[in-house]
Amino acid sequence: MAILKRGLAGEPVKILQAKLGVSADGQFGPATEEALKAYQKANGLSADGVAGPDTFSAMGLPELILLTVGTKGEAVKKLQTALGIAADGQFGPGTAKAVKAFQEKNGLEPDGMAGPVTLSKIPAFAGVFSAEAVAKAQSGPATVGTDGKPVSADAAAAPKKSIWQTITSFFS
């Protein structure tokens, strides 16, 4: 499930921290959790200190929205309605199957997860997922190495992946 909570680290955490106005070190610690809870409370969200699709939507961070098995909420309900399936707000195997079918029909990688690339193709999400948001949701290989020199053309041409793949845990 694509959520951010205490103990996680990575690029999505940095994006969240920058939006919250806390030190953007990429590690979701107590300060990030408290700032997130304050934001959630002030904006009528469940103030649990966990950021998921509904929090990302409220914050104007569509690049962080990734709906997958286990995700719950209004964004899932909207997706289910758009796909013409029962809209219970719970992303389960049936929703994954419907997403996969949509992806196959639309020439997308059929992984059964609805991130910015998939959601940008669904009319119900029109206007939310701009080309910029889709680009921000992806991380590509560095074009400059740690030594400051350009990386090989093959490495630079590697496909971009979801920024969610940068998530790690920093607590043991």
TrEMBL record:
Residue ranges of domain Peptidoglycan binding-like in the record: 22-59, 75-121
Entry superkingdom: Bacteria
Signal peptide residue numbers: none
InterPro entries (UniProt xref): Peptidoglycan-bd-like, PGBD-like_sf, PGBDSf
Protein name: Peptidoglycan-binding protein
UniProt organism field: Xanthobacter tagetidis
